[in-house]
Amino acid sequence: MKYCSLDPDVGTLYLYFTDIEEGQATAVMEYPVSLLLDAQGAIFGCRLDLDDEVILSQLELVLEGSYNWLDGEYGHLYIRIADEDPVETITLSETAILDLDDDDLVLGIELALPEEWRTPERLQRLTPLMVTFDDEPVDGEGPVVFTPPAISADDLPDSDEEPATPVAEEPLQWRSGFVALVGKPNVGKSTLLNALLGEKVAIVSPRPQTTRVPVRGILSRPGEQIIFIDTPGIHEPSHRLGKLMVELAERTLPNADVICFMVDISQPPTRLDRMIAQQVQRARGHKLLVLNKVDQKPKRPGENYLPAYRELGQWEMEIAISARRRLGLTALLSEISARLPEGPPLYPLDQMTDQTEQQLAAEFVREKALFYLQQEVPHAIAIEVEEWQEKETATYIRMTINVEKESQKGILIGAGGGMLKKIGSAARASIERMLGRPVYLDLWVKVRPNWRDDPSALGWLGYRAKNFL
Ligand SMILES: Nc1nc2c(ncn2[C@@H]2O[C@H](COP(=O)(O)OP(=O)(O)OP(=O)(O)O)[C@@H](O)[C@H]2O)c(=O)[nH]1
């Protein structure tokens, strides 16, 4: 590691392997990460759990570091400032972001460091490498800065905006309404929902079709309640589960007061974007065009896809955001607020989602499987919570992970149970964070042939249209 910096406003620790100049990083990848701690509990490095999407040549700069190394067997990338073994390894609930340049080289890593890990004691070993965080970074200092393709960063509100917290006051006239987040898979709908709420209520992954059923996220502020509906990405389904996902997403449109049609501004529009835009146009709600991923450079350098997206329909407003970097969210929220109908709050003011803790816990397991497993396997997973017991020292949770084939079961369990262990320990960290207490997570794997195309299995696993209407 060449040096590092801490942005206390957003709680991000940056580790750099080279001097970073403005705009140098153009792409990102995400992986689960654990902190490496010494006997005093101080952080002296981290371990990233990579998958086959990372190739060795991308890690050239990382592996120049004297104490960094890649354990090829397990895909563990160790980033350390000393040649020592950790006394303890702590898995973070947020994934780490790898920043890559145009040549696909990993330049640096961003870690979302919870507050308890940002103390001088925890960071003492990294202090000699620390550079100051500047609002306007100069070469070789400060965080990686992306240059938005179509919209200048100056046009966007400050990135340090705080998501609003619920306030239980009784205003004179309430406004409340449903806001649908719709778009094709992978454009960042769930990331936006979590960023707007300041809480993780929807799982996120770099793979398309992560969200399977609509998830409600409720934002209560003085005088208003906004009920966001994060919908499954609309796509061309290849099985019954996919059909249900698309149907559920489409059914949110007629009842939405505001529709945020989300697109990835770093990519040109596709046929799916066009098709979804047409569906959105037919709905009655206010229509906003939300251009996400402004932090990412356009697919082809110099191209600007804004006019092409603009032409997909009639939009009351276009808003450029980066859900991941929390840019533009204040502007988006105020445009939404201005379009809410009058009406009383529909949910208790302190409720943030319609999902139960059990549903969220199962989703966290699916999220980790999406990160660790390749291709089709994570999409063939359905999770059942079989047992949930509050015990004296921990919450005991037993879940069954259903897959469709014996071969998938083998991959999920991994050599010596290693893969299931990895998924379990990452999921446990997220569940513990949600519950605020220790968790004992017991995972079992079962083969349920072809469940994604079997109506009775789908119903039985909870994927039934009437559950979500
Ligand atoms: N660079 C960048 N990446 C983002 C941004 N927002 C989301 N992503 C990434 O895009 C990927 C997909 O994000 P999700 O939030 O799961 O997308 P989604 O639209 O909910 O996907 P589906 O569930 O498949 O419909 C993840 O790897 C996110 O980290 C952003 O503003 N900038």
From TrEMBL:
Tell me the superkingdom of the source.
Answer: Bacteria
Provide the protein's localization. Answer: Cytoplasm; Cell membrane
GO MF terms on file?
GTP binding; GTPase activity; ribosomal small subunit binding; rRNA binding; small ribosomal subunit rRNA binding
Region (G1), start-end ranges: 183-190
Membrane topology, record value: Peripheral membrane protein
Claim: Membrane is one of the keywords in the record = yes
**InterPro entries reported in the protein's UniProt record:** G_ERA_dom (IPR030388), GTP-bd (IPR006073), GTPase_Era-like (IPR005662), KH_dom-like_a/b (IPR015946), KH_dom_type_2 (IPR004044), KH_sf_prok-type (IPR009019), P-loop_NTPase (IPR027417), Small_GTP-bd (IPR005225)
**Which CDD domains does the record cross-reference, listed alphabetically?**
Era, KH-II_Era
Provide the Era-type G domain boundaries: 175-342
Question: Where is the segment annotated G4?
Answer: 292-295
Question: Which positions bind GTP?
Answer: 183-190, 230-234, 292-295
Task: Cite the KH type-2 domain residue spans from the record.
Answer: 373-449
Listed under GO biological process in this entry are:
ribosomal small subunit assembly
Q: Where is this region: G5?
A: 321-323
Coiled-coil segments = none
Q: What does this protein do?
A: An essential GTPase that binds both GDP and GTP, with rapid nucleotide exchange. Plays a role in 16S rRNA processing and 30S ribosomal subunit biogenesis and possibly also in cell cycle regulation and energy metabolism.
The subunit field of the Swiss-Prot or TrEMBL record says: Monomer.
Entry's family note:
Belongs to the TRAFAC class TrmE-Era-EngA-EngB-Septin-like GTPase superfamily. Era GTPase family.
Name of the protein described by the UniProt record? GTPase Era
Organism of provenance = Chloroflexus aurantiacus (strain ATCC 29366 / DSM 635 / J-10-fl)
